[in-house]
Amino acid sequence: MVESSLKSWEMGAASQALLEWRWANLSSTNPNLFPFPDTLPEDYAEDVLHIAETVLSKKDPQATQLTPDGSSADPASLGVAVLIANWTIEDKEDRSYGDAAAAQLKHLLETVPRGDNGGISHRESEVQYWADSVYMVPPFIAFYGGLQNDRNLLQESYNQVRAYKEVLSDETNLWKHIMLGSWQDPSHWLTGNAWAAAGMMRVLQTINASSHAGDMQQQQYDLEGWIKDILYASREFQAPNGGLSNTIDAQPNTPQAFQDTAGTALLASVAYRMSLFKRDSDLIGFAKNARRFVRERVSTETGWLDGAVDPYKFDVPTEEGQYSPEAQAFLLVLEAARRDYTAGTKED
């Protein structure tokens, strides 16, 4: 998974998947995340720290983003890994990781163009909102705020989610993929909705684990509602086999009605996470059916998840022999969510 992740968001998704699967106490899924440990046992989270080290080794010292990209948001998906590397580094005089994370944050807050409602653009060249961005930017800002005990940053992570929701969510409670800018994709792209729901879940969990959880109750209530909006709206279109279409509400037998394992996996993980967070089993049937659909499509020969949407084209499935690194990360995230739900509720 990590070796095949070449794009910034793929590496970010891989690092988050590893955190949730192998090092859950360091991820937003841990309700006791803060205060964060300032040291780690030898070789602990070495795979995540290696990603951060690789990013830093390739970074131009003068660059403000963690990695060069036409997207202002995708490099931020690596921010949590870099923050963890900085916080737990043995040599506390080494500011390389901290400076890189701070530069990335400053770039987002002060350099990237914003929409009229304050949303940080997903693109550097123009104001454009992508649902994907909610997984990249707000969780990084929230994690930064949690580490620093900075309520303003925690609030900003919420503000960014709200700004994107105002533009992308519609009367169906599903989110459009891309709006504003020189071109749009108003379809209810499954993976875009999954990115948004999963990103909101991470922000919610981070705020809830922070020292400001008590005075940010309304923000948490809003986030819960917005996540559930996507989950319940998506459930209406779940096929009997548990799968969801690439465009969630696509008409049967149309090009975008093909079922996508990647988005189904990530959205199912959010259903498990929300069910555990709220101790509410209403969405568990949706999650279990989706997981069954996904598990049946894991190759017994390669271990890769088959049947995923092409992550670079949005509207076609991967070809035979082609695999999606983000889909593999979503599979790991799903299994981690199901494991934690089972451990936390004693239900299978």
Key words describing this protein structure:
mainly alpha, single chain, 1% strand, two-stranded antiparallel ribbon, 11 helices, 348 residues
Concise account of the structure shown:
Helices cover 51% and strands 1% of the residues. With 348 residues, it is an all-alpha fold.
Give the overall average pLDDT: 96
Main CATH class:
Mainly Alpha
Strand order of the largest sheet: 1-2
- Count the domains: 1
Structural class call reads mainly alpha
Order of helices and strands: HHHHEHHEHHHHH
> How many E strands?
2
> Total number of helical segments?
11
Query: What is the CATH third-level topology name?
Result: Glycosyltransferase
Euclidean distance between termini CA atoms: 27 Å
User: What is the makeup of the main sheet?
Assistant: 2 strands, antiparallel
Q: Helix amount, in percent? A: 40-55%
Strand content: under 5%
Pfam families: Glyco_hydro_88 (PF07470)
Keywords: Hydrolase
GO molecular function, one term: hydrolase activity
Protein name: Glycoside hydrolase family 105 protein
